[in-house]
Design goal:
The protein has a single domain, classed as Methylpurine-DNA glycosylase (MPG) (3-methyladenine DNA Glycosylase, Chain A, Roll). The protein contains three helices and ten strands; from the N terminus they run E-H-H-E-E-E-E-E-E-H-E-E-E. Strands 1, 2, 3, 4, 5, 6, 7, 8, 9 and 10 form a ten-stranded antiparallel β-sheet that branches. The chain is globular and about 40 Å long. It binds a DNA duplex (12 and 12 nucleotides) through strand 4, strand 5, strand 6 and helix 3.
Length: 180
Amino acid sequence: MKKILPPKFFQKPASAVARGLLGKIIVRKSGRKIYKIMIIETEAYLGEKDLASHARFGRTKRNAVMFGEGGCWYVYFVYGMHWLLNAVTENKNYPSAVLVRSGVLLGKNRRIINGPARITKILKINGRITGKPISKKSGLWIEDWGVKISRIKKSPRIGVEYAGVWSKKLLRFTLQERVI
DNA sequence: ACGATGATGAAC
DNA sequence: TTCATCATCGTA
C-alpha cells in the first residue's frame, strides 16, 4: 500500500517529522520522467529560537515560506551553486522545517545519494518549487510505502558550527538499516 | 585542505 | 552600497 503523505503529517514539531520521514519515498515528476528516492537522512530546524535556522533572522523574503502552514516545500540557494530541499513543518507562524540530506535512488540505477545538494540535482529541483504544496499537484510529493524502521542514529547537524549550543543538539537523523 | 560562485542579511 | 557569510561539493 502506497499512501501520499497529507499536509497533516507535516503539521507537527520538526524533529518528529524529521524522524518520520526516514524510510519514506520522495516522488518527483519532471516532464515525462519519474524519480523516486527513499529518505535516509534528515535534519530538523526548530524555529526562530534555533540559531542554526534561517528563521533566526525573523521573517525575511527568503524564509517567508517557513512561516506558513506545514506541508509546503522550502527550497533555497547556498554557496553560490547549490539548491537545498526542505519540508516546512509545524503550523502557521512557527517557522520550522526539515532538510532532506540523503536518500537511496530507487530503480535501475539504485544507489545512495549522499548530501542535500546531490538530492536536488538528481530530482531536478530548483527555487521554482519553493512555497508549493507537498502534493502531486506540484510534481513533488512524498509516499509512505510502509517501510519498517528499527534504528535511527542521532547526531549534530552539519555545517552549523556558528550556532553555539544549537550546533551541538542532536537534530540530524540517519536511518541505520542496510538499505542497498 | 580549499576554491568555486552568488544570494542574503547586516552594517554603514 | 559594501561586506562577510553561507543548512555544499569536487578536486586535491
